[in-house]
Design brief:
Shape: globular
Strand content: 5-15%
Helix content: 40-55%
Strand order of the largest sheet: 1-2-3-4
Largest sheet: 4 strands, antiparallel
Low-confidence stretches: 233-245
Order of helices and strands: HHHHEEEHHHHEH
Number of helices: 9
Distance between the termini: 19 Å
């Protein structure tokens, strides 16, 4: 794994400005070498450095850089927005025993307008949501302590995520953690000035944000791992295969 990262070239941020004005596949194809040189290759190097940081406080999230990075092409199949390309470069370090986009992971992206950093559970399946809610209902004090930790909130702000208007069926509407039981996502997210990406300071900024949120992410993944390891209910059914990134 790489040990040092000195920052992106200023041409990296400028590229996104040009892409925003020319967001089509033909333009990108003609400028792909520019994207690879100024964005993709440095990003892969940065991800290698981030792995050395994660190895200290979240070793289960160390991920091969090529698997952590997201494609620049948007999935427009179910979206009214048919713009084909993202105007950022992004990556997520998922838990190695859970699907990349269905776990509490460590995410960040770089664009012309911000460096965004997020930790938590964004994509959630119904059975996952149910088990996380049940854990919160059974021990609200532990969850509240994690999400109200000043080490986290002073850096990342308050817990975020879409929520229902009412406490879901099966849970007490007067539960002391009712506000959390309504939530459909659980994550911390912040944005910082994009120019931080132009120096090695981005490593400490992202790593420090990740580390502060590590106990929170570990809590969520413990619930998901317990669900993932449950038998299917069929006496002779094989266990669900462990997903790959």
């Amino acid at each position: 794994m790489a040990e040092i990262f000195t920052g992106f070239d200023p041409k990296a941020l400028a590229f996104f400005g040009k892409l925003a004005k020319n967001n089509d596949r033909d333009w990108f194809k003609a400028h792909k070498s520019e994207y690879d040189t100024h964005l993709k290759d440095p990003m892969l190097q940065l991800l290698g450095v981030m792995n050395t940081k994660l190895a200290r406080f979240a070793p289960d999230h160390v991920t091969e850089p090529k698997k952590a990075i997201y494609r620049i092409y948007r999935d427009t199949r179910f979206s009214k927005n048919k713009i084909p390309l993202k105007v950022n470069i992004s990556a997520m370090f998922g838990h190695h025993l859970l699907p990349k986009n269905l776990c509490a992971g460590y995410y960040f992206h770089i664009s012309a307008t911000e460096v965004a950093i997020g930790v938590g559970l964004y994509g959630v399946e119904p059975d996952q949501l149910k088990i996380v809610r049940q854990a919160i209902a059974n021990d609200p004090a532990t969850f509240k302590k994690l999400v109200a930790d000043k080490k986290v909130t002073s850096k990342m702000g308050i817990l975020q995520g879409d929520a229902l208007t009412r406490v879901p069926k099966g849970f007490d509407a007067e539960h002391p953690a009712a506000a959390y039981l309504k939530m459909k996502q659980f994550y911390f997210f912040r944005e910082v000035d994009p120019t931080i990406a132009l120096s090695g300071k981005i490593v400490a900024e992202v790593a420090n944000s990740f580390e502060r949120c590590a106990p929170f992410a570990a809590y969520l993944n413990r619930q998901l791992l317990a669900l993932h390891q449950q038998p299917t209910g069929e006496p002779d059914a094989p266990k669900r295969p462990m997903p790959m990134f």
